[in-house]
Design brief:
Blueprint: H1 6-19, H2 27-34, H3 38-50, E1 54-57, E2 62-65, H4 67-78, H5 81-97, E3 100-107, E4 110-117, E5 132-134, H6 139-147, H7 174-187, E6 190-193, E7 200-208, E8 214-223, H8 224-227, E9 228-229, E10 232-233, H9 235-251
Antiparallel strand pairs: 1-2, 3-4, 3-8, 4-5, 6-7, 7-8, 9-10
C-alpha cells in the first residue's frame, strides 16, 4: 500500500488554516502555526496560488483562499442531495417568513452552511454558503446536537474552560447546553436568542432521511424586533420552519410525523 504524500498533507493543512482566517494570514503566521519552515510554506503557497486555490493580498502580503477552492466547494454542494431536495422549500420559507434562511449539516463539530437564501428585501446581505458556525450558539447547531448524539462534544476535564462565548447570552457550560437540548428534543425545534450575534435571533428544526437519521437542519434568522413578540419567539415563524423541515424530510423519504 502506498504511503501518504507529505507535501499534500501540508498543503491541506495550509488550506484548512486559511479557511479560518477571514482577513488572511501572513507567511510568518502560517509557518509559526503549522511549525513548518518558511521556505517550505512559501513553496506550497506559490503552488497553490498557481492553481488558483490561494490568493495574496497586496500590499499587506497576507494569504487567503482563492476562487478555485470556492468553485470546488460549490461543486460539492451542488451534488449534495440535501441541498438539492431543499432548494424550493428554503425559497418558500424565506418568502413566508420574510427572513434569511440557511440549511446546515454537521461538519467537524461545526455547522456547515450548505444553502443560504437571502431575506427577500433590498437590504445588503452576504452569502454564507460554506461558512462554519458554532454548534452551541446557533439554532441550526442546537437542532443538530439535540437529535444526533454523536455530535455532542466530549466530556471536558474538570479544569477545562467552558464553551466559547460570543455574547452575554451564549450557553457556555455543558450542563446548561444539555438542558437546552432536552427542551429542543421535547419541542421539536431549536431557538437562538442573541447567542451568536447581539440583536439577532433564530429558529431551526431537524431534517431527517428515510432511515429517520437527522441529516441536517433548516432555520431562519433575523432581528429580534421582527421575530419576537411579548411572549418570545413568534410561534407563526416556528410553524413555518417546522413545516419546511417536514417537507424536506418527506422529500428525502422520511415517514411523515
Amino acid at each position: 500500500m502506498a504511503g501518504r504524500i507529505q507535501s499534500i498533507e501540508r498543503a491541506a493543512a495550509i488550506l484548512r488554516l486559511l479557511a479560518g482566517g477571514a482577513r488572511g494570514l501572513s507567511l510568518a503566521e502560517i509557518s509559526r502555526t503549522l511549525e513548518l519552515p518558511k521556505g517550505t510554506v512559501l513553496g506550497i503557497l506559490r503552488t497553490l496560488q498557481h492553481v488558483g486555490f490561494v490568493e495574496q493580498d497586496q500590499p499587506a502580503g497576507h494569504y487567503r483562499l482563492g476562487g478555485g477552492v470556492l468553485r470546488l466547494g460549490t461543486r460539492y454542494l451542488d451534488g449534495n442531495e440535501l441541498r438539492t431536495r431543499a432548494l424550493n422549500w428554503a425559497d418558500s420559507l424565506a418568502g413566508r417568513s420574510g427572513e434569511s434562511v440557511r440549511i446546515g449539516t454537521l461538519h467537524e463539530r461545526h455547522v456547515l452552511v450548505v444553502h443560504h437564501v437571502f431575506r427577500p428585501d433590498d437590504s445588503r446581505q452576504t452569502l454564507e454558503v460554506g461558512s462554519l458556525l458554532p454548534l452551541h450558539a446557533t439554532a441550526l447547531g442546537k437542532a443538530l446536537l439535540a437529535f444526533d448524539p454523536l455530535a455532542l462534544p466530549d466530556e471536558p476535564e474538570p479544569d477545562a474552560p467552558g464553551l466559547p462565548a460570543y455574547t452575554a447570552r451564549t450557553l457556555t457550560s455543558r450542563p446548561a447546553l444539555l438542558a437546552e437540548l432536552d427542551t429542543v428534543r421535547a419541542n421539536g425545534w431549536a431557538p437562538e436568542l442573541e447567542e451568536l450575534v447581539e440583536g439577532e435571533v433564530g429558529i431551526a428544526a431537524p431534517i431527517r432521511d428515510r432511515s429517520g437519521t437527522t441529516v441536517g437542519a433548516i432555520g431562519l434568522s433575523g432581528a429580534v424586533e421582527r421575530l419576537c413578540d411579548d411572549r418570545g419567539l413568534r410561534m407563526d415563524q416556528v410553524s413555518y420552519v417546522r413545516d419546511a423541515a417536514r417537507s424536506i424530510s418527506r422529500e428525502l423519504g422520511a415517514h411523515p410525523w
